[in-house]
Amino acid sequence: MEVKTICVIGAGAMGNGIAQVAAQAGYDVYMRDIDDKFVERGTEAIKKSLARIVKKGKISEDDAGKIVGRIKGTTDVKEAVSKADLIIEAATENIELKKKIFKELDELAPAHVILASNTSTIPIVIVGSSTNRPDKVVGMHFFNPVPMMKCVEVIKSLTTSDEAVKVAVEVAEKMGKSPVVVKDSPAFVANRLIVPFINEAVFALMEGIADSPEDIDTICKLSFGHPMGPLALADLVGLDVLLAVLEILHSETGDPKFRPAPLLRQMVRAGYLGQKAGRGFYDYGKK
Ligand SMILES: NC(=O)c1ccc[n+]([C@@H]2O[C@H](COP(=O)([O-])OP(=O)(O)OC[C@H]3O[C@@H](n4cnc5c(N)ncnc54)[C@H](O)[C@@H]3O)[C@@H](O)[C@H]2O)c1
């Protein structure tokens, strides 16, 4: 199946990144969110990201204009899905919300359309089973920031067809990514490894093992060669997203090693969600 038009559901950190790389790859893109202000914020983020690429001399200003021109932002879900061949859902990480979205997409999208989810943790079989086309539901897990990170985990659930996997792999490759096919399992591979590592860094901070987030991040950068420490990474990803990943890992496996650090939960409750909120483990100035 040839994909020409991609619809992205959600214009947040991941949705706008996916819309950008899809448009850069030459696809026509619809980017849908629930409110104009989120659509506008997502469009602005894409323009800023492209401006940085222009500044680096990798594309011309004219190219950037054409890329933006291929993205139509909308709040109208019917309009967003009507011409799509592939829909990539990147809405808020919440099982009930994703099930509702996939049910709606299944009702509205033409029969041939493949439905992909960018979920970090939710088993693809769960979102697939809320549709009448579970064979056409696949995971496409991009990484943050999407324009920079090369990996895409393509997730094949028990019900996903080989054809849906093939389409997801081809589209990811056309976007300049390196897809890796993995089995459907809570948090898949990348987050199953990195999220408990970040959680342990929060425990270390909470227990006062190091004096500050900076100290923990410095140790990890200098001893593991990581470009960014776990607490700065937590702020980039979003503390609410991390907590959701841990809760799903914990409830799906029952394994106490995945219990969220109480400090992480408190910070989410306080609204200290990281960069997007202006404050997380580090202070980014008020938003
Ligand atoms: N943040 C990360 O580093 C990261 C990395 C990989 C995957 N993910 C996954 O990507 C998804 C999105 O994460 P994010 O960080 O972009 O979140 P975000 O909070 O930045 O954006 C989510 C967006 O979804 C929108 N939304 C909610 N309900 C919607 C609906 N019914 N239709 C359309 N839009 C809707 C919200 O208004 C919001 O703009 C989650 O499933 C998350 O687990 C996140």
Characterization of the model:
Strand 1, helix 1 (13-24) and strand 2 (28-32) form a beta-alpha-beta unit. The chain folds into two domains: 5-183, NAD(P)-binding Rossmann-like Domain (Rossmann fold), CATH 3.40.50; 191-277, N-(1-d-carboxylethyl)-l-norvaline Dehydrogenase, domain 2. Helix 8 packs across helix 11 (239-253). It has helices at 13-24, 36-55, 61-69, 77-82, 95-108, 124-128, 162-174, 190-206, 213-224, 230-237, 239-253, 262-270, and strands spanning 5-9, 28-32, 71-74, 86-89, 114-117, 137-141, 151-156, 178-183. It has an eight-stranded mixed β-sheet with strand order 3-2-1-4-5-6-7-8, sandwiched between helices. The chain is of the alpha/beta class and 287 residues long. Residues 9-15, 32-34, 38, 90-93, 97, 101, 118-120, 141-144, 237-238, 241 line the site of nicotinamide-adenine-dinucleotide.
Low-confidence stretches: none
**End-to-end span in angstroms?**
43 Å
| Sheet/helix structural class | alpha/beta
Overall helicity:
40-55%
- In spatial order, strands of the major sheet run 3-2-1-4-5-6-7-8
Number of structural units classed as domains: 2
Reported for the largest beta sheet, the result is: 8 strands, mixed
The CATH superfamily of the largest domain turns out to be NAD(P)-binding Rossmann-like Domain
- CATH architecture descriptor of the largest domain: 3-Layer(aba) Sandwich
Count of helical regions: 12
Quick tags:
single chain; 287 residues; alpha/beta; Rossmann fold; N-(1-d-carboxylethyl)-l-norvaline Dehydrogenase, domain 2; 8-stranded mixed beta sheet; 49% helix; globular
